[in-house]
Amino acid sequence: MSEKETNRPEKKRKKESQIAGVMKRLKRNKFAMAGLVIIILLILVAIFADVLAPYGYAEQDLKNTFASPSAGHLCGTDKLGRDVFSRLIYGARESLMIGFLSVLLAASIGMVLGALAGFYGGVVDNLLMRFLDIYQSIPNILLSMVLATALGASTQNTIIALGISTIPLHARILRSQFMVCRDQEYVEAAVATNANDFEIMWKHVLPNAIPPMIVQITMSLGLSILAGATLSFLGLGAQPPSPEWGTMISEGRNYLRNFPHLALAPGLCIMVTVLSFNLLGDGLRDALDPKLKD
Q1: DSSP code of residue 255
Q2: Closest Cα partner for 116 from 168, 174, 166?
Q3: Residue 200 DSSP code
Q4: Backbone angles phi, psi at 258, to 5 degrees
Q5: 3-state SS class at 221
Q6: Is the whole model's pTM more than 0.70, yes or no?
Q7: Quick one: which of 96, 114, 175, 237 is 20 to 30 A from 216 by CA?
Q8: pLDDT tens for residues 95-144?
Q9: Which residues contact 255 (CB under 8 A, 6 or more apart)?
Q10: Residue 3 CB neighbour total at 10 angstroms
Q11: Is 211 exposed, middle or buried (0-12, 13-18, 19+ CB in 10 A)?
Q12: Can you name the residues that pair with 83 across neighbouring β-strands?
């Protein structure tokens, strides 16, 4: 058996041991695990919303409007007699979709820009970073509002607006990590074997630079869900009859005095979701910190 073949199991075991170590440290953080459990439950609710929801999110019962919470309607009904609990369940799908897809868009573009700037440095770094300096000088929420207005109010355009507005943050984080990793010995060894730039960045630098990105992506998910709800609340995001949580708050704000549950229920959903992602992000940051290894 060649030396290359014998090294493969060792590398696999090392990688598995690293993942096991991260999970072991993460399990010690009870708050992070609580956040992870809630997030998993929310994802399952979003996936199986059609099965879990007792009513359709647009199903109306005009004879039973503004009903108080009861056994038949756990969170009551709104002005059109729609079941609020069912809309919350379907709203989990809408809100999580906005969060995940917008972060995926921002991270994908940001990681490419950050990798190029951090790996090559020099003129490439200066050009990209100066562009991102101008880009980042515009407040995220203001840029999102302008883009959502220009593109038109819809769930798809909300995803695009949020994704484009948060690219610089992901780019800067990966750039800083690439600048640290590009001068390491394993990169020099890869250069000595005539590996091309793409192979060096993808196979050697990125795996060692990715941990901070995992933390940032996790934290960004909660912020993107909150920003998406903000745009929907302002009428620039998801549009009725969409059950997106921000839209539900916007529809229920006019009835806070007499029917507070119409706005409080989706507000609590947003709060718990954002808090869960923040707790998980904090836990991952500690678990991925090399200084905390046993």
Answers
A1: G
A2: 174
A3: I
A4: -100, -30
A5: helix
A6: yes
A7: 237
A8: 999 999 999 999 999 999 999 999 898 899 999 999 999 988 988 889 99
A9: 66, 79, 262, 263
A10: 6
A11: middle
A12: 77
Q: Is 82 helix (H, G, I), strand (E, B) or coil?
A: coil
Residue 3: what pLDDT? 47
pLDDT mean over 38-44: 97
Q: Which of 163, 198, 210, 182 is nearest to 125 (CA)?
A: 182
Locate 61 and state its tokens.
């019962």
Over range 62-85, report the average pLDDT. Answer: 91
Helix (H) or strand (E) holding 285: helix 261-287
Per the structure block, which two tokens stand in for 248?
A: 């539900």
Q: Any idea how long the chain is?
A: 294
pLDDT at 188: 82
- What digits encode the pLDDT tens for the residues 205-223? 888 888 889 999 999 999 9
Q: Residue 114: name the closest of 167, 159, 187 by CA.
A: 167
**Of 135 and 12, which is predicted with more confidence?**
135
All domains in the chain, ordered by first residue: 44-59+80-292 (1.10.3720.10)
